[in-house]
Specification:
alpha/beta; Rossmann fold; 2 domains; globular
């Protein structure tokens, strides 16, 4: 980057542009009372828009971080990267790996991945490999997509980053979520919220924030059993992860698909083009604050200004999931078409 005018030039311009932090810190926006039903209780809710990065999703940062941790010899010898993921991790890796000299990205997915997601991955050049193991496998199991990725990674010329245990995953949560949030909100912040997918963001960011303020409340959200939301894991599956999120998370609340998509839609219509995993966090925050008010514990999380300040994370945009909004939400959420006479 030549200067603060954000001009990227030269033979490394593309790689410089894709480097995390190249555009500066991602924005933090406070939700208005129309989206914060507890504003009158002295609760302020901020959303960190992590989709304001070159690839438009939060997973691009741990993807970059994991690639950066590969030693030169491994990078030189790797022609095939393989990862168990059907979402933003492999979407990001398919593009970023080329800038690290790795020409091929293989995404192990399950048969239930919808066609529009498969087309998106094919669009960025990913090779899709179908696993018939469990959708959310135990990351330490000897069956399922995570295990299959590890086995393929042992082949000559192949490598598996294994986002489920890779320190680059949690490092990105610390570096690009927590450190920025602390710089932006400082010790006004009292509660941090994130989904639990691989647990890299909530563990990396939560650990750093607790190091700055031991009383920081870290709350996570999982998918309520029986629902499907892209990105996070079902409530029972988060116990099968390799990153020890439970060491720093104070509370986990499962959220259903309707609530996730409905709150995401509210954010979209206010001007924040976020996906369902972001709406899921807002639904969780509302449920959490309601419980705190009932239990009369909300005042424990007020800062020096007597405010409860909550920050949550926008992971990506709504565009890959547009069809799902119309499948999950009732017709009353959308205006009917009218014919002109």
């Amino acid at each position: 980057m030549s200067n603060n005018k954000k001009v990227f030039e030269g033979v490394n311009a593309m790689k410089d542009f894709l480097t995390p932090g190249s555009l500066g810190m991602t924005p933090v926006v406070e939700l208005p009372p129309s989206l914060n039903k507890y504003a009158k209780d002295g609760v302020r809710i901020f959303i960190k828009l992590m989709q304001f990065v070159p690839l438009g999703n939060i997973k691009s940062m741990p993807s970059w971080s994991m690639l950066s941790l590969m030693d030169k010899e491994t990078l030189k010898n790797t022609k095939h990267l393989v990862e168990y993921s059907s979402g933003n991790t492999v979407l990001s890796l398919a593009i970023l790996s080329r800038h690290f000299g790795i020409p091929n990205l293989h995404a192990i997915i399950t048969p239930d991945v919808p066609e529009h997601k498969k087309r998106l991955l094919k669009l960025v050049g990913a090779d899709l490999m179908i696993s018939h193991g469990p959708r959310s496998p135990d990351v330490h199991s000897n069956m399922g997509g995570v295990y299959e990725a590890k086995q393929l990674g042992k082949r000559k010329g192949w490598h598996n980053l294994n986002q489920y245990i890779n320190p680059g995953n949690t490092n990105a949560g610390e570096e690009y979520v927590a450190k920025e949030l602390w710089s932006q909100l400082g010790d006004d912040l009292t509660i941090f919220v994130s989904t639990i997918g691989t647990a890299g963001t909530i563990y990396g960011a939560g650990s750093y924030l607790k190091s700055k303020n031991k009383d920081m409340y870290i709350a996570g959200t999982s998918i309520k059993k029986g629902s499907s939301i892209p990105g996070p894991r079902v409530d029972e599956a988060i116990l099968k992860l390799g990153i020890p999120w439970y060491d720093i998370v104070d509370q986990v609340i499962p959220i259903d698909a309707f609530s996730a998509y409905e709150r995401s839609l509210a954010l979209i219509r206010a001007g924040l083009f976020v996906g369902p995993s972001t709406g899921m966090q807002l639904a969780m925050i509302e449920k959490m604050i309601k419980e705190m008010k009932i239990k009369k514990t909300l005042n424990k999380y007020r800062n020096k200004n007597k405010e409860v300040v909550i920050a949550f994370v926008a992971c990506d945009m709504m565009h890959p999931y547009i069809d799902d909004y119309f499948k999950i939400l009732p017709d009353r959420y959308f205006k009917k078409e009218h014919k002109l006479e």
